[in-house]
Write a structure and sequence with these properties.
The chain is α/β, with parallel strands linked by helices and about 550 residues long. The protein has 19 helices and 26 strands.
């Protein structure tokens, strides 16, 4: 027991006897926190708080010398895709097409003809050939199953002939706006690789799960996220997932906060009206962010570049819209009162987004719009100052860097100097918000922290880091993953840091990562996760 009686202020609990990183500064720590009604009432020394406050749980939360951090807020993920992947065929990390095909063959052996075989995560850059595959490889496994495999980045899909026939794609099919069918050299015959909007038809005809099935899939994934220390997410998922989150909250099972992020549609007003009827507190479920796309991805060579790809000189990428079309959509979302988060990976794609933001600001000047560029992977060196001048947030995923570093310079050559340039953003006073893009990258925030401080893959390559001048400190990386993500969601006034008046969303780690080696940071484990001062995860056999 801590102490008793006196004229002390009653609180729900005290967190004490450890090292608490507040995220208010790069190296700001405190010793203890007093929590009441899900909110941090005070921070300070253990002695000062014990003298002033009396916890209802008498023993409080004794950190036993361990480190506590604000709960992680993943600023950019696709929770439904990640949740589904845990029940689909996971092709991530496979180093040959044969390994991929073996997994697909195993699935085909267990399913009757006519069934869908759905997977995600293949990456031809991990294969010795580095070549994109074709449908005939899948046809050798089955022409009676419908095989649909998305690339790890979600911007390309590999299908068999059965799927091509189902969606009626053939040599006469033109490329759709914002998409492309890969074709055999010197021919118009499609290979079975579809880029971006070209696979929308497939997505639309895949059998949908019921609300009850989705509920169970998401609930399972929420527990997984909590086990990694995630207490908030900014989630770009299909609009119907909003109802799943609402139902989870009503049943007391929404164990993290959701900043729901919808793709642009022409009927934004009716969609907002539908969401606004929800009775869920906005601190747990809100919808005010709209997503648009400027381009594709580097891995699929669809990111929009100012100059052609070094390894594909006839190709500069695939812009999703012209300036006028993107401006028109962004303006409609802005006028409807939505915040904008626009996907931009190539230097031309990012530049296009900044041009749109600048034109919007000139036409309708307004402060604090919290515009976001999602990914912001490759920049023209002059565009960093434009981010700052337009007050644009760089919403980035550090683990992309350590995945892509093995091949990025083949794609973009010297332009890689200003790729994944976190330090340059900070030097230009541009707010950073960190996430994972799950399931493109692992959901574990420790991988992102490791990437941000090392710029090395998980095996330590390259020695000293890839463009090490862009590494940032651990403190700044955590801030980007907590306060920065809250700021990017317009939530920083009430969460994202451990300070009085903010939500008691925090985690306890098994080690002090501030005094650990980078490898120890990578392997750090979460012992407990708290949301609103309530424990939502406890590691088995741990704290």
């Amino acid at each position: 027991m801590l102490v008793s009686c006196g004229q002390k202020i009653p609180v729900d609990t005290l967190v004490y006897n450890g090292k608490i990183f507040t995220a208010r500064g790069e190296l700001e720590f405190t010793e203890a926190m007093a929590i009441k009604d899900g909110t941090i009432l005070a921070i300070g020394s253990k002695e000062a708080l014990l003298d002033k406050y009396l916890p209802a749980d008498t023993g409080g939360i004794d950190l036993q010398g361990r480190l506590a951090l604000p709960g992680f807020h993943d600023a950019h993920l696709h929770f439904w895709n990640g949740a589904k992947l845990r029940r689909q065929i996971d092709l991530r990390g496979l180093t040959s097409p044969e390994a991929v095909l073996e997994k697909i063959q195993q699935a085909a052996n267990q399913l009757p003809p006519g069934e869908w075989i759905i997977g995600r995560g293949w990456d031809h850059e991990l294969w010795k050939s580095k070549q994109l595959p074709n449908r005939y490889l899948l046809d050798r496994i089955s022409t009676e199953h419908l095989i649909y495999l998305k690339r790890v980045d979600g911007h390309a899909a590999w299908v068999n002939t059965a799927v091509m026939n189902l969606i009626r794609y053939d040599s006469k099919t033109p490329d759709p706006p914002g998409g492309k069918l890969m074709r055999h050299p010197g021919s118009t015959e499609p290979t079975g690789i579809l880029f971006d909007s070209a696979f929308d038809l497939v997505d639309n005809i895949i059998p949908k799960l019921t609300l009850t099935q989705k509920y169970e899939v998401v609930k399972e994934a929420l527990s997984y996220a909590n086990s990694l220390g995630i207490t908030s997410i900014t989630d770009n998922s299909p609009a119907d997932l909003h109802a799943v989150y609402a139902e989870l909250f009503k049943n007391g099972q929404l164990s993290l906060r959701v900043n729901f992020w919808i793709d642009y549609v022409d009927h934004l007003d009716s969609l907002r009206s539908s969401f606004s009827r929800s009775e869920i507190p906005p601190k747990f479920l809100k919808t005010n962010l709209v997503k648009l796309y400027a381009d594709g991805s580097l891995g699929s060579r669809t990111a929009y570049l100012r100059a052609p790809y070094n390894d594909d000189p006839a190709n500069s990428g695939l812009p999703q819209y012209s300036f006028l079309d993107l401006f028109d959509r962004a303006k409609k979302a802005d006028e409807a009162g939505f915040q904008l988060g626009i996907h931009g990976i190539g230097d031309a794609g990012v530049g296009l987004i900044l041009d749109v933001f600048q034109a919007l600001q000139q036409q309708h000047p307004r402060e604090n719009r919290r515009w976001r560029v999602e990914h912001a992977q490759v920049l023209d060196s002059l565009d960093f100052t434009r981010f700052q001048q337009l007050d644009v947030i760089a919403s980035m995923q550090p683990s992309h860097c350590i995945t892509d570093l093995h091949w990025a310079e083949r794609r973009i050559g010297k332009r890689a100097r200003f790729a994944y340039a976190w330090k340059t953003f900070l030097r230009n006073d541009v707010p950073l918000a960190f996430g994972t893009d799950w399931p493109v990258e692992p959901l574990n925030p420790m991988v992102g922290l490791y990437a941000a401080i090392t710029r090395q893959d998980t095996l330590g390559f390259p020695s000293g880091g890839w463009y090490p001048e862009e590494r940032i400190s651990l403190g700044n990386a955590i801030i980007a993953y907590t306060y920065g993500s809250a700021y990017a969601a317009n939530n920083e006034n009430w969460c994202g840091a451990l300070q009085p008046g903010k939500a008691a969303d925090f985690i306890i780690l098994d080690r002090d990562i501030f005094s650990a080696t980078p490898e120890e940071v990578l392997h750090a484990k979460v012992l407990a996760t708290y949301v609103d001062g309530k424990r939502v995860y406890k590691r088995e056999g741990g704290f």
